[in-house]
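[Meeting: bench + compute handoff]

Bench side (C.D.) handed over the final construct sequence. Compute side (W.E.) agreed to return the predicted structure before the next meeting so the bench team could plan truncations. Sequence as handed over:
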Amino acid sequence: MERENGYLTVYLALCLTLILSLYLALIEGARRGGAAMESACAAEIGMQNIMAEYHRELFNQFNLFALDSSYGTRICGRKNTEAHLMEYLKRNLSMEDVFAGKYLYRDFFGLQAYDAELTGVSILTDEKGAVFRGMAIEAVKNDVGLKLLEEVQDWMSVVQVNGLAEADYEAESRKLDEALEEYDGMEVQISENESVFLEVDNPAAQLNTKRGLGTLHLVIENTASLSPKILSGAEPVSRRMEQGILHSGNMPVQPAEDLWSRVLFQEYLLRYLDHYGDEAGGGALDYQIEYLIAGKEQDTENLKSVAGRLSAIREAANVVYLLTDPEKSLEIEEAAILACGLFALPELIPLVKAAILFGWAYAESVYDVKTLLAGGKIPLMKDKSSWHYSLSSALYGGMEDSGGSGRGLSYEDYLRILMTLTGLDTLTVRAMDMVEADIRQTPGNSYFRLDACYGELEALMRIDSSFGYRFEIRRKRAYQ
């Protein structure tokens, strides 16, 4: 009997050894698997915590999500964000928030954060603002219909076919003035024994004098009421980009450059930036869309430049109409013959005709721009029903009237055309200038800079266990 009991004791000992080994192996596997899961959860939560630190003012004003790596200080960079991520990892792995954790529970995994490194970042200013532009497009793409794309395509087709953006009739008018001055006082032989001095009366001389005042003074009666704001403070994005001192990321960027993306981006700008006639008043500049087009530091200069470009486009369109309207062409010819008088040289008539043509078109363009700035509408190409000035009113009138709402394109529509004619990179960089300058106007954001803002992050987090494990977890997160 004792011998049998001995066999049983050895057998039981062997079984318990195997069972205990299996049990310990299962515990160790559970520990390792649980530690890996807890590390992954802590890393996920840490990344979510980091992404939740998006810049509130940037979101409130411009509906853009981005992480400001400066956190309101003068110093920006990955080290700041890595420190924040490390702090979140430590807190997520600690048992400080567990009730009576030191007394009632044992840390089964023994995890602690060892290192957190940002291996990749995408900065809003990367690729000349392509990241910023992409985020802006995402912010409005669900609110803009394809009808707008069709309209912009039609407008740009008219502009390109008729050469409205390339024409420079102001320079042509100056050349005509110089040419007519050469004929003024010329001696003309009218018979064998008689000659007279030719006196050339340029019908458009009065208009050309007004042209020299500048379009802005003709279309806005009280220029003293215009915004006096000047873009000041720290160097804008555009200047820092020229100097090559912008922070840059290391993640691939896919620039959105097709026409639909451009239209969406321009709609974002029109929605979130101010322009003449729609000024909120709290920004660094009041005429911000005009700044995107002209790039001047002063509001008045930007509006002056845009008004001049609008006048040039309208003058070119008006010249096209006058040349294609038989009645008005006949009026111009009759006025030129009458102005030249009985003893005119044959080559003088075409010069006077051209002067009258450009003068009439310019007077009409002043009316057009004045109407647009007053909130009215002007068609891109006019017809008899939309033409305003008679020839006599244009040449000798005061150009003081402006139209009502009318039909056609609004000032905002013409801004769309001018933005489309502006280089996409230029438009984007200047838009970043405005966003950055506006954010700096708000409390606590005087050091804000877009080249410190991350739109996408990739992080490598290393977590150690007191039981000899080390976990390396890589995660990528983006706001888009």
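W.E. noted at the follow-up: The radius of gyration is 36 Å. C.D. will use this when planning the next construct.
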